[in-house]
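Table S2 (continued). Query chain:
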Amino acid sequence: MNGQESLMDLFRDPETIHSLSFGEKMLGSTITMIMGLGITFTVLILIWIFIAIMGRAMGATRKKPAAEAAAPAAAAAETKAAPAGEASDDSLIAVIAAAIAAAEGGSADNLVVRRITRLSGDMTPWASAANSDRMDTRKM
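Corresponding output:
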Protein backbone atom coordinates (compact mmCIF):
# COMPACT_ATOMS: atom_id res chain seq x y z
CA MET A 1 0.00 0.00 0.00
CA ASN A 2 1.38 3.38 -0.98
CA GLY A 3 1.76 5.84 1.89
CA GLN A 4 0.12 8.66 -0.04
CA GLU A 5 -3.05 6.76 -0.89
CA SER A 6 -5.57 6.01 1.80
CA LEU A 7 -7.20 2.64 2.22
CA MET A 8 -10.52 3.91 0.89
CA ASP A 9 -8.80 5.29 -2.24
CA LEU A 10 -7.35 1.84 -2.87
CA PHE A 11 -10.73 0.26 -2.14
CA ARG A 12 -12.36 2.39 -4.82
CA ASP A 13 -10.29 0.93 -7.66
CA PRO A 14 -11.24 -2.67 -8.57
CA GLU A 15 -7.71 -3.40 -9.85
CA THR A 16 -5.99 -2.61 -6.56
CA ILE A 17 -8.41 -4.58 -4.38
CA HIS A 18 -6.71 -7.82 -5.41
CA SER A 19 -3.35 -6.53 -4.21
CA LEU A 20 -4.62 -5.76 -0.68
CA SER A 21 -4.08 -8.13 2.21
CA PHE A 22 -6.96 -9.85 4.01
CA GLY A 23 -6.69 -7.46 6.98
CA GLU A 24 -6.81 -4.40 4.72
CA LYS A 25 -9.85 -5.79 2.90
CA MET A 26 -11.62 -6.47 6.20
CA LEU A 27 -10.75 -2.98 7.51
CA GLY A 28 -12.03 -1.34 4.31
CA SER A 29 -15.21 -3.43 4.42
CA THR A 30 -15.79 -2.49 8.06
CA ILE A 31 -15.32 1.21 7.33
CA THR A 32 -17.75 0.96 4.39
CA MET A 33 -20.30 -0.88 6.53
CA ILE A 34 -20.08 1.63 9.39
CA MET A 35 -20.45 4.56 6.98
CA GLY A 36 -23.48 2.94 5.34
CA LEU A 37 -25.15 2.16 8.67
CA GLY A 38 -24.38 5.64 9.97
CA ILE A 39 -25.90 7.35 6.95
CA THR A 40 -28.95 5.06 7.03
CA PHE A 41 -29.67 5.62 10.72
CA THR A 42 -29.05 9.35 10.42
CA VAL A 43 -31.60 9.62 7.62
CA LEU A 44 -34.09 7.45 9.52
CA ILE A 45 -33.74 9.63 12.62
CA LEU A 46 -34.27 12.76 10.51
CA ILE A 47 -37.41 11.22 8.96
CA TRP A 48 -38.66 10.24 12.43
CA ILE A 49 -38.13 13.81 13.71
CA PHE A 50 -39.88 15.24 10.65
CA ILE A 51 -42.88 12.92 11.11
CA ALA A 52 -43.09 13.77 14.82
CA ILE A 53 -43.06 17.51 14.07
CA MET A 54 -45.70 17.12 11.34
CA GLY A 55 -47.83 14.94 13.64
CA ARG A 56 -47.78 17.58 16.35
CA ALA A 57 -48.56 20.32 13.83
CA MET A 58 -51.46 18.36 12.37
CA GLY A 59 -52.71 17.37 15.83
CA ALA A 60 -52.74 21.00 16.96
CA THR A 61 -54.74 22.12 13.93
CA ARG A 62 -57.24 19.26 14.25
CA LYS A 63 -57.89 19.61 17.98
CA LYS A 64 -58.61 23.30 17.92
CA PRO A 65 -61.58 23.33 15.48
CA ALA A 66 -63.06 20.16 17.03
CA ALA A 67 -63.00 21.76 20.48
CA GLU A 68 -64.60 24.93 19.13
CA ALA A 69 -67.31 22.92 17.34
CA ALA A 70 -67.98 20.78 20.40
CA ALA A 71 -68.78 23.75 22.63
CA PRO A 72 -71.88 24.98 20.71
CA ALA A 73 -73.02 21.41 20.10
CA ALA A 74 -72.71 20.56 23.79
CA ALA A 75 -74.59 23.75 24.69
CA ALA A 76 -77.37 22.77 22.29
CA ALA A 77 -77.48 19.30 23.84
CA GLU A 78 -77.78 20.77 27.34
CA THR A 79 -80.69 22.99 26.34
CA LYS A 80 -82.58 20.00 24.91
CA ALA A 81 -81.77 17.74 27.87
CA ALA A 82 -84.48 16.59 30.26
CA PRO A 83 -84.34 17.17 34.04
CA ALA A 84 -81.48 15.43 35.81
CA GLY A 85 -83.72 13.13 37.82
CA GLU A 86 -85.07 11.11 34.88
CA ALA A 87 -83.14 9.20 32.26
CA SER A 88 -84.29 10.46 28.88
CA ASP A 89 -83.58 9.07 25.43
CA ASP A 90 -83.90 12.57 24.00
CA SER A 91 -80.88 13.77 25.98
CA LEU A 92 -78.91 10.72 24.89
CA ILE A 93 -79.78 11.42 21.25
CA ALA A 94 -78.76 15.06 21.69
CA VAL A 95 -75.41 14.08 23.15
CA ILE A 96 -74.77 11.58 20.35
CA ALA A 97 -75.71 14.18 17.73
CA ALA A 98 -73.38 16.72 19.34
CA ALA A 99 -70.52 14.20 19.37
CA ILE A 100 -71.04 13.34 15.70
CA ALA A 101 -71.21 17.02 14.76
CA ALA A 102 -68.01 17.74 16.73
CA ALA A 103 -66.20 14.82 15.07
CA GLU A 104 -67.20 16.02 11.60
CA GLY A 105 -66.27 19.61 12.39
CA GLY A 106 -69.75 20.96 11.64
CA SER A 107 -72.73 21.98 13.71
CA ALA A 108 -75.61 19.90 15.05
CA ASP A 109 -78.14 22.11 13.23
CA ASN A 110 -77.96 20.27 9.91
CA LEU A 111 -77.54 16.80 11.43
CA VAL A 112 -80.60 14.54 11.46
CA VAL A 113 -80.62 11.39 13.60
CA ARG A 114 -83.15 9.01 12.10
CA ARG A 115 -82.86 5.97 14.31
CA ILE A 116 -80.88 4.91 17.35
CA THR A 117 -81.35 1.35 18.54
CA ARG A 118 -79.76 -0.24 21.57
CA LEU A 119 -78.14 -3.59 20.81
CA SER A 120 -78.37 -6.45 23.24
CA GLY A 121 -76.55 -9.74 23.42
CA ASP A 122 -73.11 -11.14 24.08
CA MET A 123 -71.40 -9.45 21.12
CA THR A 124 -69.91 -6.00 21.23
CA PRO A 125 -71.50 -3.31 19.05
CA TRP A 126 -68.51 -3.50 16.67
CA ALA A 127 -68.98 -7.24 16.22
CA SER A 128 -72.71 -6.80 15.65
CA ALA A 129 -72.06 -4.11 13.04
CA ALA A 130 -69.53 -6.34 11.30
CA ASN A 131 -72.00 -9.24 11.22
CA SER A 132 -74.69 -6.95 9.87
CA ASP A 133 -72.37 -5.69 7.12
CA ARG A 134 -71.40 -9.24 6.18
CA MET A 135 -75.03 -10.29 5.95
CA ASP A 136 -75.91 -7.23 3.84
CA THR A 137 -73.21 -8.11 1.29
CA ARG A 138 -74.63 -11.62 0.90
CA LYS A 139 -78.20 -10.57 0.15
CA MET A 140 -79.40 -11.11 -3.39
